[in-house]
Automatic annotation (TrEMBL):
Keywords: ATP-binding, Ligase, Nucleotide-binding, Purine biosynthesis. Pathway: Purine metabolism; IMP biosynthesis via de novo pathway; N(1)-(5-phospho-D-ribosyl)glycinamide from 5-phospho-alpha-D-ribose 1-diphosphate: step 2/2. Transmembrane segments: none annotated. Residues 107-313 form the ATP-grasp domain. It comes from Acetobacter garciniae. One of its GO terms (biological process) is purine nucleobase biosynthetic process. This is Phosphoribosylamine--glycine ligase. SMART domains: GARS_A, GARS_C.
């Protein structure tokens, strides 16, 4: 099977590694890819949102399956364009991708389907949003309504912090069009977990779960990021709890989407808060998470490719999804300045040494090769250093041994990924 994988981050590196293991794979193209994916397939210099060029390339190369990595091309209509061109695409339509493209759309779906979620309001002007925050008090959550690459959520502990977030998003233009409208919601309290499932129409098949660590600093301090590390499986959220969460929070959404004439097919990633009243939905994403995929996929023992091909054909694969019993810990190494303006250009050393360690996989994200062939920092989240172990403690020790083997000036990472699971 000839496959075009779309994306350039650590998630796509992990997907490429997983797809490369499939006996059904005959050719793998990654657009645009990164230096890490180049070892697993052929990188193609096409941007993730250049939908016409992606479709033209897939037709030219007689691609059998397009696999979208990030959310942006799906919201931009990649699956719809593939359908018009007669190409199979393992992702939802642009209409169904609004589950991630619009926070208020998701909230409306939850309300219609009776899905537990935080009480909320949507605002298109800053003044009434600020009035609402002053009336509600803090803690309170301010979310950009549109796509913001994981940086559009502020969990405000004070009213002043919430007001500043509203002003930054709505009048300061900090997040561009994504923040022109905002959703303000009650602050849920509990443990956050990420649940993944293959979905087609009104049915869903459990993939698995992971726990992300969103904030930049140890002890869950500082601003939210796209994710600074992940653990799989999460403590206290096993297969039975995951299936129950699918029944409560995912399958009713699928029925409501089908009722509206915009059925969802693809990978759903439900961000959940495990509150003292039970699981509550934080958000839906319409693809694998990042860095959750880097923690989850190395544990996968079944073949991902037939499952994705089945999704593209609007059905669920009947082959069971299986994982090893090992634990996985993923630590993100970021550039100094992230999640603000990251420092770029430093030369990265030691990835080969880290990959040589038992159980360790280093997935590249914000990297590129310079004219001299050196691997350099090119983004905020630079590497995802992941490790498998028989226990969380073993996986954690291996992951941090991998981190210590890698260096560049200004590298930052959290030192407590996996501590909660211990």
């Amino acid at each position: 099977m000839r496959v075009l994988l779309v994306g350039s981050g650590g998630r796509e590196h992990a997907l490429a590694q997983t797809l490369a293991r499939s006996p059904d794979l005959s050719a793998l193209f990654i657009a645009p890819g990164n230096p890490g994916t180049a070892a697993l397939g052929i990188n193609v210099p096409i941007g993730v949102q250049d939908v016409p060029a992606l479709v033209a390339f897939a037709k030219e190369q007689q691609v059998d399956l397009v696999v979208p990595g990030p959310e942006a091309p799906l919201v931009a209509g990649l699956a719809d364009a593939c359908a018009r061109a007669g190409l199979a695409c393992a992702g939802p339509s642009a209409a169904a991708a609004q589950l991630e493209g619009s926070k208020s759309f998701t909230k409306e779906i939850c309300d219609a389907a009776g899905i537990p979620t935080a009480a909320w309001e949507r605002f298109t002007e800053a003044a009434p949003a600020i009035d609402y925050v002053r009336a509600k008090g803090a803690p309170i959550v301010v979310k950009a309504d549109g796509l913001a690459a994981g940086k559009g959520v502020v969990v405000a502990t004070t009213v002043a912090q919430a007001e500043a977030a509203i002003t930054d998003m709505m009048t300061g233009g900090a997040l561009g069009d994504a923040g022109r409208s905002v959703v303000i919601e009650d602050c849920l309290v509990g443990e956050e977990v990420s649940l993944f499932a293959f979905c087609a129409g009104e049915t869903a098949t459990l993939i698995g779960a992971a726990q992300d660590h969103k904030r930049i600093g140890d002890g869950d301090t500082g601003p939210n990021t796209g994710g600074m590390g992940a653990v799989s499986p999460p403590k206290g959220f096993g297969p039975a709890e995951q299936e129950a969460a699918l029944d409560l929070l995912v399958r009713p959404m699928l029925r409501e989407m089908a009722r509206r004439g915009t059925p969802f097919r693809g990978v759903i990633f439900a961000g959940l808060m495990l509150t003292d009243k039970g699981p509550s939905l934080i958000e839906y994403n319409v693809r694998f998470g990042d860095p959750e995929a880097e923690a989850l996929l190395p544990r996968l023992t079944s073949d991902l490719l037939p499952a994705l091909k089945a999704l593209a054909e609007d059905r669920l694969d009947t082959t069971p999804i299986t994982f090893s019993d090992q634990a996985s810990v993923c630590v993100v190494m970021a550039a100094r300045g992230y999640p603000g303006e990251p420092e770029k250009g430093a030369v990265i050393h030691g990835i080969d040494n880290a990959n040589a360690l038992e159980g360790v996989h280093v997935f590249q994200a914000g990297t590129r090769q310079d004219m001299a062939g050196e691997l350099i920092v090119a983004g905020g989240r630079v590497l995802a250093v992941c490790a498998l172990g028989q226990t969380v403690a073993e996986a954690q020790a291996r992951a941090y041994a991998g981190v210590k083997a890698i260096s560049w000036p200004g590298a930052v990472w959290r030192t407590d990924i996996g501590d909660k699971a211990l």
